[in-house]
Amino acid sequence: LLVQILDTIALFLSRKLAEIGFDLHFKTTVGDNTGRLTAALEIAAGRADVIIVTGGLGPTVDDITRDAISAFTGRKMVMDNQLFSRIAGYFKKRNIEMPENNQLQAYMPEGATMLENRAGIAPGFIIEHNSKIIAVMPGVPSEMHPMMEKSVMPYLLEKFGPAAGVIKSKVLHVVNLPESVIDEKIEDLFRSLANPTIALLAHQAEVDVRITAKAAGVTDADEMISKVKAQIYERLGDNIFYEDDETLEQKVAQLLFDKKITVATAESCTAGLVAFRLTSVAGSSGFFMGGVNAYANSAKINIIGVDEEIIKIHGAVSAECAADMASKTREKFGADSAISVTGIAGPGGGSEEKPVGLVYIGVDINGEVKTHKYIFPGSRESIRVRAAQTALLCYYKESKNA
Amino acid sequence: LLVQILDTIALFLSRKLAEIGFDLHFKTTVGDNTGRLTAALEIAAGRADVIIVTGGLGPTVDDITRDAISAFTGRKMVMDNQLFSRIAGYFKKRNIEMPENNQLQAYMPEGATMLENRAGIAPGFIIEHNSKIIAVMPGVPSEMHPMMEKSVMPYLLEKFGPAAGVIKSKVLHVVNLPESVIDEKIEDLFRSLANPTIALLAHQAEVDVRITAKAAGVTDADEMISKVKAQIYERLGDNIFYEDDETLEQKVAQLLFDKKITVATAESCTAGLVAFRLTSVAGSSGFFMGGVNAYANSAKINIIGVDEEIIKIHGAVSAECAADMASKTREKFGADSAISVTGIAGPGGGSEEKPVGLVYIGVDINGEVKTHKYIFPGSRESIRVRAAQTALLCYYKESKNA
Description:
The structure is a homodimer.
Chain A: H1 8-19, E1 26-30, H2 34-47, E2 50-54, H3 65-73, E3 77-79, H4 81-93, E4 107-109, E5 113-115, E6 124-129, E7 132-137, H5 141-160, E8 166-174, H6 179-192, E9 197-202, E10 207-215, H7 218-236, E11 240-243, H8 248-259, E12 263-267, H9 273-278, E13 288-293, H10 297-304, H11 308-314, H12 319-333, E14 337-343, E15 358-365, E16 368-375, H13 380-401
Parallel strand pairs in A: 2-7, 12-13, 12-14
Antiparallel strand pairs in A: 3-4, 5-6, 6-7, 8-10, 8-11, 9-10, 14-15, 15-16
């Protein structure tokens, strides 16, 4: 409860349960205390048919989930020999002596169904107890996610059938419009709709519009969503660039693959963020030639080849410099196109004429160069994140139309 | 429960309660359903002295907190005339006709103490019921945070006195050691200590060791923490690089400022992440000269100046290439030192000899070059994040000793 991290586990589980139409009614967080976890299990069993527990399956003394499950169900923990050999093998393979603690992880409650852990040591398990289903998984997301998807969800569907109906969501990512303007444009949909519902969520450089439909089946839900989606596209279409888990870099990558264009980057204030995002897409070596993080003016001049006169006359943070950075970078890397970013991320370095947040973005496509000027609000981090996001957007729009 | 956002509210409340020495034992999330919220209040009253409720105070039909509180306490909701005029004034000032729904927000449970909302319409309130304290606040963080700090925390301190003491935490970030090894090295501390307690939390490229002390006052808590901290440093000191909210890039930056060293980067698979992290520190233009994200071999050869023969003989992912990238980059940017990263982030591109995850890191300090070989597990993203983290670590160690 004191752990100073955000609860991404609950977020994942609520989405996955919605996908298969299970209503999530309560979410409870309990500290590493066997008595309190046992009490929480008792309360959960009194108000739900399925209980999902995550975390506390590690090898240390504060991993109390096995004990609590044992106390709650009255079942003994028994050593699973096969599991023990597997855990021992894990350490042997890595040439590490198996710590005695890890033996703990070879114990399972009597009668439990073991759930394979594809990414770590501790398996999960499912127990059916007094006609309640208790699924227990590790708390590490990389271990828990596949276990939920490959084992727990199929188990629940097998047990209860797909009859319960589904809840589906679609997220439209709106960029370059403030939340209040979006709100005004679709306010009537908000008010009139009970199902699907619409919700807004503002981020640093975009606003998510989430449409959620509850229906008997997936087809019905999809149909309900697509109707509302069409209405929202009518009003906000120009500013919706991607949906659901799609990312802007994926959209850019797809466009570059389709058009067979290569790209290079020249970044000052974002210092690599645009390049890093572009290359987050698998296969990006097919379109990304490389980039220069030209922080110092000497780097802009010596490495990219920016005209020294331009920096002298207009300064490094100027449309002229952004343009020259883009075109020289395109040439230098032998790319079809280039993106450049130069700006003042702060907190220092601003002036009345050139305030903190001032950013110029340059896009060169086959020798045709355009520049864009922005003044971004917020912290150093926020300015850099927005600058990279906006650079990718500018580039996307222009290479799409090129 | 379906809202696809992270629960920052719980995180905030757990920290604030710890600050004033209140033990948080349970956290429950309930959907917008009056019956279920009322039931959750009943459970909470059975296991805690103070219940904090957030959210559901808006003007819409799914804002059910007022009704649930009324049902649970058996108190009527009464219109507060002063509050009504204030809400009406809010709309009048903005030249908006007051929606009928907003009248709802002028109702308070009989006998409740109203809590001022400095950032929005709906006030919060506190009720004392059957010797339990129930504090209700809006769910919007910008409204809830000041209400918690200015109203609820003082109320709780006033009521229970400062006798309950404080809870303080310190986090030591341990890198380059697996969780199980850390566990073994400090296991006896885990077992023997009830206060302070020690907890481990594994991340992608590091493990956090959190020491939490409960004491009568801040000084006592600090003293308790520092004793345990010294013991942990004795055992893990070589692998502890930063504490609490400090970051690795801050440590590197501080070292570079202190030693007056400049640095440049040459990144292949991390494509800018090392440069981006280094420049996240304000004032980084004082030490960061720039970098090249040399994705294509042509970029490594033409922009950085890597010897073509080296790539032909050893390949781009090799110790030799990492070394040449570092030394050529240092020269090219006129820097005192350079960091290079070259590897296979996957999912494609791996072979038996050079598997996905293979990463070479080069560090050149004043012409002295060292390389390091790693094989990182996990996804493309995980490999890139670990590679950048490890590159910064290698660089930190070597520039510290240089």
